[in-house]
Amino acid sequence: MPARRPVRDRDRDRGQVAIEFVGTVPLILLLVAAGKYIGSAWSMSVACGASGDVYKATVTLRIPVLYPGLNFGAIDGTAGAAMERED
After folding, report:
1. Which of 11, 18, 31, 61 is 20 to 30 A (C-alpha) from 76?
2. pLDDT category, 51, cuts 50, 70, 90?
3. DSSP states of 2-25 as a string?
4. What b/e readout covers 12-31, taking b as 16+ CB neighbours within 10 angstroms?
5. Which has the closest alpha carbon to 78: 55, 64, 62, 42?
6. Above pLDDT 70, what percent of the chain?
């Protein structure tokens, strides 16, 4: 009976990259199609300005209707940063 060769760690992962690639390709293609056909439907508005000692930004992102009857509306986000002044 021939001697078995020891199994190395790198032999256990043989083909793993191919499986991950095949599983990721449909997602990449979906994102490319979404960016091309849905990208223009997204709209946003941005407002920036000083509010006391804080510089404030407000962003509103309107999400397009991807499926009839399913409307997500808009997403609002607000952030601020302290205004630094040298005296």
Report:
1. 31
2. confident
3. PPPPPPPHHHHTTTHHHHHHHHHH
4. eeeeeeeeeeeeeeeeeeee
5. 55
6. 83
- Which residue shows structure tokens 């223009």? 40
List the beta strands (DSSP E) in the chain.
Answer: 43-51, 54-62, 74-82
**Ranges of H-type helices in 38-83:** none
> Is residue 36 predicted with pLDDT exceeding 70?
yes
Measured CA to CA, the distance from residue 68 to residue 61 in angstroms comes to: 19
Q: Are 24 and 53 in contact (CB under 8 A)?
A: no
Query: Could you tell me the CA-to-CA distances from 27 to 20, 37, 40, 41, 74 in Å, in that order?
Result: 11, 15, 20, 20, 25
